[in-house]
Amino acid sequence: MYMTDRPRADAAAAGQGASLRRNGVRSRPRGVRSRVGTPVGSTVVLLGLVSLLTDVSSEAVSAVLPLYLTAVLGLSPLAFGFVDGLYQGVSAVVRILGGWLSDRADRPKWVAFAGYGLSAVTKVALLAAQGLGAVTAVITVDRLGKGLRTAPRDALIAASTPTATLGRAFGMHRALDTTGAAIGPLLAFSILWLVPGDYSAVFVASLAAAVMGLAVLLLLVPDLRPRRDRMTTAATATSAAAAAPAAAPAAAPTPPSLRLLRQGRFGRLMLAAAVLGVLTISDGFLYLSLARRDDLAATWFPLLFVGTNVAYLALAVPLGRLSDRWGRARVLVGGHLLLVGAYLCAAGPVGGLPATLACLFLLGAFYAATDGVLAAFTATLVPPEVRASGIATTQTVVAAARFASSVGFGSLWLWLGRGPAVYAVAAALVVAVPLAWWLLRGVERPTPGLASAAMRPRDVGDTGAGA
Amino acid sequence: MSARARLVALVVVCLLALGGTAAYVLVARDGQREAAAAAPALPAVSVASLQDEPRIVFRNAAIGPDYGKVAMVPLSDPGGPRAVTGQSCDRVFATSTRTLCLGSDGGAGTTWRATVTTRGEASPRRLPLTGTPSRARLSRDGSHAATTTFVAGDSYTATGFSTRTVITTLADGSGSDLEDFRLVHRGRTVRPADRNFWGVTFAADGDTFYVTASFGKQNWLARGSLSRRTLTTLRADAECPSLSPDGTHVAYKKRQDRRAGDWRVAVLDLASGRETVLPGGRSVDDQVEWLDDRQLVYGLPGDGSRAAETNVWVVAADGTSQPRVLIEKAWSPAVVR
């Protein structure tokens, strides 16, 4: 059964890929720390709303696509599996492009707008698409749009949020995003209940949600210019040197160089993300493992991801806050211990409801501890000029590591069998967690430049959000 | 643009989007109701009038409110009026007393169900089902049910697909996953990790069955025994077997040297081992069913944009005739004799 994990896997990969960033918490003065109690900035909520509406739009289509392809277009399940595969790979390549364009033009809002707009246009095309070729083309363009918008969107979140509350801001965004993913299928099937078999009505509703998301982005989200703001700040600061992060020489008038990413701490973060990513078994495999063990999980197989999403939704903000207080590296690496727990629940010989629910809960908690936190971590680690590129790079590293993981784990499953294969990866992850911790220890060490950067009133954008 | 103007613009866009969608859905709903009212009454008869005579049970594929519902026509007049039941299935099979239905339901995620309805019993029985319905069969006496599904999860790497085939003994509800059976290939017990099974057909003895066994990139016709829990490969390149009512022939789909997913129907004489590939230019992706001991029926997609309106075709099992449409707008035929 093809499609089942696509939506959630995709959402997970997108979230997971977010950038890691150096944590300025411990170096932050007390006055800034107190901001942890303030509400999340309006820009973050607006971007969350944009993502929510866009996810309603895309997940409504994803939910009915298998039925539409097989029942209306008459394609076989295998052809659908092919379309499903496209969903996975397409966006990774354009993600880097989106990040680079965003940094180069210093216009993250408009690059994100192009990405959201591209996906909205595909909903119109879907109304006219006939046959596998057309549907495949439309879905490919939709994924291109997703790839394009992710990094600039995360850069906007970072630019509108003080460093001290980045973890919570990303957590809030991911929670809203996941809410949309849950509403989409319900909306789609409600419409099919009203007008049985009328898939174009679902596509019209999907288009409406996409257009509303686009309108919120266009009309309410401020056009933040991270590089220009930074130059202004630098110019007005008593000491320009103090305002510049360690890796960036004082505000450059030229487009940013990606060489800014070539610094040791960012490299260590990517290495840690890759090591952990390679040992992250895809949700699909874990669900399959649960379904193989007992008929209960098998019967509810398609709904397993809903359980994971509920836990993710509930924990994204609390764990994001925890990362703001405790340090992002600690929560990020520690989150993988939750994943080890999920593996043990999935691989153990005892099935039944408690083990299945524990696995789903731990998996959702793992995503909540790593997904937005990784984005927050990256955002603190790279200079604002190349933030979108940095976020895109980490996301792509994680996506590539996860793909390698899928290929490798598929072979391991065939070779060792279900339980032993999961146990083997769990054991490797137990070894990798201290390794990642060691890699990130140096990254977390506060540096004066970043501490100053963290103090800058970056939430200026928030107050102007409604303007 | 002032903040106020932006908010007004946003409200206008949202009202247009929501209002437009609501209007579209309501107009579509009215259109469906009018079409249903205006359509000439389908040549339909009551289920009660057919359920005691020899019949063909199938999935109705006429676009409309009854799309996907189980329907039946008399065996004596397959092109005649159909009786439509209220049950929705993606795949259906029936004996004189039982109906096996594999279906899917939308919601927060699409779920699947397998139910066995027995005449004289008030409520249907639910069987566990993992994955998208693919094949369904009951043994002739209705004592065993076999389901095949496409399983999700390992499609991640797009290296192929995985199937799950379960045979359930309906008397006690116990199920057997065929991957747990002993597999004998060329006289030796083998345990290939990449084995998959699909498309069960039962013999009349209540123990023997045939199924497709796939491993090492090749598909085999295999014979199984429920009591001994074994599977023995017989012949390469034979998928979705179907045993003739007299038990002398097995029909299956065959790829030969065509591209993947392009099959023709072939019939094997079990006694002589002679195989006949049947005429017909279109690929058949179905588990064929025997109309009688000499003719086969199977489903094919409709033409062009009406692919979802599948038709059931009939062809002589000895290869002496071209296939022709037997039941329009139908799928998943099961012959109840």
Automatic annotation (TrEMBL), chain A:
PROSITE patterns: MFS. It comes from Pedococcus cremeus. Residues 1-35 are annotated as: Disordered. Pfam families: MFS_1 (PF07690). It is found in: Cell membrane. It is a multi-pass membrane protein. Residues 10-22 have a biased composition (Low complexity). The chain crosses the membrane at residues 36-53, 65-87, 201-221, 269-288, 300-319, 331-349, 355-382, 394-415, 421-440. Coiled coil: none annotated. This is Sugar phosphate permease. Its main location: membrane.
Automatic annotation (TrEMBL), chain B:
It comes from the Bacteria. Residues 120-142 are annotated as: Disordered. This is WD40-like Beta Propeller Repeat. InterPro entries: 6-blade_b-propeller_TolB-like.
